[in-house]
Amino acid sequence: SIEDFDSEEALPHPYQWNNFSPEEVANHDENAARNVLRRMHHVNDITPRDFVEVCVDMKQQGVGGYDSWGARPEPFHQIPANRDYQWGFTLVPVRSANQANEAAKYDYR
Questions:
Q1: Which segments does the entry list as coiled coil (predicted)?
Q2: Which of 6, 42, 50, 94 is a plausible cystine mate for 100, CB 3.0–4.6 Å?
Q3: How many domains in the chain?
Q4: What angle do CA 7, 18, 85 make, to 5 degrees?
């Protein structure tokens, strides 16, 4: 997730799910969350229900500079917002380690 640690305490967000789209957050039950944990930060903090929902990021950019107080990452390590990006992945259900090993042999493109 992306956080601004300097202003985190100033923002009113007692019950939040980081790294989820507004549509995904809208489908979570905030009232139930109040009874589980004060602030939900990770997927494993959400109460299990009868569905699985995962957010997969194409790329993430960390601090990456030469210091941790404001230096920008080198251009090669930046992720410009003014470009189009395309990527994909395939989910292959498996029930055992042997099935996972067998499925890993194939090219799913």
A1: none
A2: 94
A3: 1
A4: 105
**CB distance 60 to 24 below 8 Å:** no
Mean pLDDT of 81-86: 88
Does residue 19 fall inside a structural domain?
Answer: yes
In a domain, 22, yes or no: yes
For the entire predicted model, the pTM comes to 0.35
98 part of a folded domain: no
Give me the domain span that covers residue 21: 1-82
Short-list 60, 64, 44, 40, CA closest to 52: 44
- The DSSP 8-state label assigned to residue 49 in this structure reads B
* Residue listed under structure tokens 């990527």: 87
Residue 92 resides in a domain: no
Q: The tokens of 105 are what?
A: 């042999």
